[in-house]
């Protein structure tokens, strides 16, 4: 399977370096996702039992998943679907939920879980919701991010100078994303501490 989403584009090149010298690792796909289930709010955690990707659905590893769920005060264990493109509107999110039955969407986890399975390693996913099912992502903001997931500063400056109203939306998205990543970080810290004891 080829790259799926933003950071997944570098997976093929980086995987051998990441895998070198590891004995029995647990692969964790961590980051943010978009909510598809209307019950999910920004900052909520998704620790899915299965991930749905272009190659089909794959279960995540049960023991590490139980540990992650135990480390979280509250988390959704519903399926996560990996998309090739940003799912930016409430209408597109509703369609994807109806088609897949997934609780949330990201752009990387299916590839990462598939790679781990090929290597014979357990894999889990922990994602924080950055945008709820009813929240859209402005197209002008999406164009500010390159295919590698990095901000394009010159384009960002030009866009925000031309449309200063976007600044508020950009700051709100940043706040939600940082909150989602903080929730993921807290759970991973407990998970890592438990695995090293």
Summarize the structure.
With 197 residues, this protein is of the alpha/beta class.
What is the H/E string? HEEEEHEEHEHEHHH
Number of domains: 1
Distance between the termini: 36 Å
Please report which band the strand proportion falls in: under 5%, 5-15%, 15-25%, 25-35%, 35-45% or over 45%.
15-25%
In the CATH hierarchy, the architecture is 3-Layer(aba) Sandwich
Individual helix count: 7
What features would you describe in this structure?
This protein has about 200 residues and is α/β, with parallel strands linked by helices. The protein has one domain: Nucleoside phosphorylase domain (Rossmann fold), CATH 3.40.50.1580. Helices cover about 45% and strands about 20% of the residues. It has seven helices and eight strands; from the N terminus they run αββββαββαβαβααα. The protein has helices at about 10-20, 60-70, 90-100, 110-120, 140, 155-160, 165-195, and strands at about 25-35, 45, 50-55, 55-60, 75, 80, 105, 125-130. Strands 4-3-6-7-1-8-2-5 form an eight-stranded mixed beta sheet. Strand 6, helix 3 (about 90-100) and strand 7 (about 105) form a beta-alpha-beta unit. Helix 2 crosses helix 7. It is globular. The model is unreliable at about 1-5 (pLDDT under 50).
């Amino acid at each position: 399977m080829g790259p799926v989403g933003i950071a997944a584009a570098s997976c093929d090149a980086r995987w051998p370096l990441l895998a070198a010298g590891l004995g029995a690792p647990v692969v964790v796909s961590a980051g943010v996702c978009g909510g598809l289930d209307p019950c999910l709010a920004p900052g909520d955690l998704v620790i899915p039992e299965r991930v749905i990707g272009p190659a089909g659905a794959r279960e995540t590893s049960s023991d590490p998943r139980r540990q992650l769920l135990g480390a979280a005060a509250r988390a959704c264990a519903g399926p996560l679907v990996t998309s090739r493109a940003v799912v930016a509107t409430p209408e597109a999110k509703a369609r994807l939920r109806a088609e897949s039955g997934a609780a949330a969407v990201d752009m990387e986890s299916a590839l990462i879980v598939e790679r781990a399975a090929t290597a014979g390693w357990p894999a889990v996913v922990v994602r924080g919701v950055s945008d709820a099912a009813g929240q859209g992502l402005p197209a002008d903001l999406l164009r500010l991010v390159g295919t590698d997931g990095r901000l394009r500063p010159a384009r960002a400056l030009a866009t925000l100078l031309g449309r200063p109203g976007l600044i508020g939306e950009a700051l709100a998205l940043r706040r939600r994303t940082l909150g989602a990543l903080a929730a993921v970080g807290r759970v991973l810290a407990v998970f890592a501490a438990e695995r090293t004891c």
